[in-house]
Structure formats: C-alpha cells, structure tokens
Amino acid sequence: MRSLRFLLCLLCAAPLGALASAALPKVRLFTTGGTIQSKGAHREKIAEYNDGRVTPKELIDDLPELKDFAQVDFEEIANVGSPGITTEHLLKLAKGLNAWLALPESGGAVVTHGTGTLEETAYFLQLTIKSDKPVVVVGAMRPWTGISRDGPLNLINAVRTAAAPEAVGKGVMVLLNDTIHSARFVTKNNTYRVETFVSREVGPLGYADSDRIAFYRSPLTRHTTRSEFDVSKLETLPAVDIVYGYQEASAAPLEALVAAGVKGIILADSAPSFGRATSLALSKGVVLVQSDRKGSGRVLNSERVAGRGLITADNLNAQKARVLLRLALTKTTDAKEIQRIFNEY
Ligand code: ASP
C-alpha cells in the first residue's frame, strides 16, 4: 500500500513523458562542423553552402524526435569543414569523449563531422577511445537547409545507434545513408552522392532501419578497449605525410619531406624514382609505410617490399595508414614493432 501511494505521488509530481525520457540512455553530441552543420543560400542548390553555420543547439532543437530515443546534450569541439580538422581538434575530441564515456551515467556518443576527412577522425577514435560504449560518427552530403537533405535522418539514426545495446563493443562506427560502417574499413567513395560511404571488400556492419538497428558483423581488428594507444597526456602527434605514386612521379616531394624533418611517410603506391629517396629517408630514421592508391586490397608483406626496410599497410588506405603511423610513433620507432601494429589494427 505504501509503495502504491509512493508511485501515485511520483506520477502526479512528474509528467509521464518526463518519467519515460529519464529512463532513456544519455547520448552526448560532440560537434565538429562539416556539411551536416552547413547552410546554403538556395534550398535547391545542394552543393553550394558554407560549413559550420548551424550550431549544435539548432541541430538538437530542429529534431524533437530525438527525445524518443535518448536524452541528448552536446559539447562543441569545433565548427569547421573537415579539411580544417587539426591534431589539436583530434586530441580534444578523443579526450572529451573519453571523459564523457567514463561517467557511469553516459550511454554513448555521436560526433558530427565533415565527410571529406571523416574516415581519418573515425579511425583515430577507433584507436584512442577507452570504452566499449557506442561512438557513432555522422555527417551529411547535403546542407542542413537543403531540399531532400540527408542530415536530419542521419543524425536521428546516429543517436538511435549510439543508444542501442547491440552497438556496445563494436568499436567506433560511421553512419550515413542508413548504413553502419566500422571506422576501420569505411572510406568516402564519391564526391557528392548520398551513398558515398562504403566498406570495400568487407561490407558494412549493419543498418539503422525504422524497425530496429540491425547488426550482422563485428570488426576483428584491435580497437577501443583493446587498443594500446593512450593520448590522455599528449599535446601533439608526430608529423607524417603522404606521397602519391604515378607514372614518372618525381622524387622531389619525398626528398622535401625528409629535408623538412617528418618522422614518417606513407607511400600511396610507388614509382621508379622513389628508390634513392627512400634509401635516404631510411638512413635518416624516417619510417616509411607502403600503402596503395587503388582504394582497396592488401599490400602484402612480401620480401620485395619488407626487404627494402618498408613497413606494409595491409589494407589500410594511405590516409588511414597515416593515422595509425602517427599513433605508432608515439610508442616506438622500431620497424618490427610498427609492422606488428599494422598487422593488428
Ligand atoms: N566540405 C565538407 C567537409 O567538411 C564536406 C562534407 O561535410 O560533406 O568535409
């Protein structure tokens, strides 16, 4: 009887909606900008807009439906186009996410990001987040103000995924166009189409459909709670750049980077002229990683490549190999150890 009276009391003190929403998971939105936070002058010109005009509060206020899935608040990290994301932003984001996810009351997190370099940030988080709780990186291909915009549904689906128990332990995920990808395997594949994100060769993890969040796979490479990388005390990361191979490619960019004092270089394919420059780089202690420019497929750890002192990137594209090499160089410069890292992550 006493507990019935207590329950009745609770019901009159709090509206039913409030009781229901208090039971929903807490998802924090970490915003960095990009097209999802952009406004255009003409609703139909969906490729003409300015990044970073929509505030995090506007995103949330525009979507009352979010309240059906989670208790959402936000933390603004930046409001820039994704080519403008810096090491400082990455470290601030990883530290902010780790602090939020360590709280017992947090359920998960969503990160807004421009799509151009989204896969780099997502992979960086996959390697540096110290929690099993879901982290979903989301973007859009059309401005928040455009006709047939994709941002609102992408954001709702990202919050639903971050709040879903099935998403726990799947590593950092990327969600656009109803499709959930692993940060390890996803890449942007098209300049303007909404179906731009793909996980070549291996396929997506699942889908955010209106009936449920449906997962079919889990990534097997090391990530989040099984990652050895710790950025909690770092203020910067080692400089690593990328050099592209093509017919008659000059060795000048490679030589210039070595002269500039970079700690590592990713070779996106090769060229005959690279031979002497790579020997020079290695003699100066620069770590070289052989990746490829085709966008999918493994670079084999063959005697031909490894025998020249190069580390092989497996099936990481050049921009993701750069992310991993920067983190690897915070721990070691030993080529064998770095190759182990490339084999495991
Ligand atoms: N310019 C945008 C960027 O920040 C493109 C996008 O967000 O889709 O990468």
List the helices and strands and how they pair.
Elements: H1 2-13, H2 16-22, E1 26-31, H3 56-61, E2 71-76, H4 87-101, E3 106-112, H5 118-128, E4 135-138, H6 151-162, E5 172-176, E6 179-182, E7 187-188, E8 197-198, E9 206-208, E10 213-215, E11 240-244, H7 252-260, E12 264-268, H8 274-283, E13 287-291, H9 303-306, E14 311-312, H10 318-328, H11 335-344
Parallel strand pairs: 1-2, 1-3, 3-4, 4-5, 11-12, 12-13, 13-14
Antiparallel strand pairs: 5-6, 6-9, 7-8, 9-10
Helix pairs in contact: 5-10
Aspartic acid binds at residues 34-35, 51, 81-82, 114-116, 139, 141.
Description:
With 345 residues, the chain is of the alpha/beta class. The chain has two domains: 24-226, Rossmann fold (3-Layer(aba) Sandwich), CATH 3.40.50; 240-344, Rossmann fold (3-Layer(aba) Sandwich). It is built from eleven helices and 14 strands. The strands form three sheets. It has an eight-stranded mixed sheet, sandwiched between helices. α7 (252-260) links the parallel β11 and β12 (264-268). The longest helix is centred in the first third of the chain and has 15 residues, at 87-101. The site of aspartic acid has 10 residues, from loops.
